[in-house]
Amino acid sequence: MEQKKTVVVTGFEPFGEYTVNASWVAVQENVFLKLFYTEAQKQKEMQSAIPNSCSILNHPCVPQLVVHVGVSGIASSVTLEQCAHNQGYQREDNCCYCPRTHCCVEGGPDCIPSVLQMHELMSRVDQSALGVAVSVSEDAGRYLCDYTYYLSLYEGAGRSVFVHVPPLGKPYSAEELARALRALILEMLELLETQTGPKSC
Q: What reaction gets catalysed by this protein (predicted)?
């Protein structure tokens, strides 16, 4: 019998102008598929939450991959982030928190890539059939998304992915974003079988 694969998928709570966060809505839509375990991402809890999620990656009965989903006000497509950055964090989050050293991990690498090759992942998804455009980025910003992604990659030996989605209705519905997310995660799991290490930043 084929072993079931499990993915930890996280979304963010509302913040700023986003009274409904498209990332969390898209994640919640997938709960009904019973494919993914989901958790609401709180603003200042990353330093403890990320290690707890990633410490179980090597256990045979728990997630093989951690996928974080966040909203981007400038995105018009579902955006796959290739890497995360350690330095340059200046903005406070919802809890008025900003790292004192303006970095994620003191002494950590400047940039950490995912073990998954995002351009290859993008090419594996039939965007016309999906009805949702997919793109690749190498800069997730210097806010909570990039911060979360860096910690996740650092603790999980690169076995993490960050996906940015546009705000709801700009132009995609929750159902469309959820469908794209599900298709991408299934492809991630397939691709993970063939990828053994990250590319350089």
A: Release of an N-terminal pyroglutamyl group from a polypeptide, the second amino acid generally not being Pro
Percentages helix, strand, coil for the chain (3-state, rounded to 5) are 30, 20, 45
Domains of the chain: 7-192 (3.40.630.20)
d(CA 193, CA 54): 18
Rounded CA-CA distance 168/184 in Å is 18
Tens-place pLDDT, residues 161-193: 999 999 999 999 999 999 999 999 999 999 988
Kindly name the residue from 83, 96, 145, 201 that is annotated as catalytic: 145
Q: Residue 137 in contact with residue 82, Cβ under 8 Å? A: yes
Write down the pTM of the prediction. Answer: 0.83
Is 145 an annotated catalytic residue?
A: yes
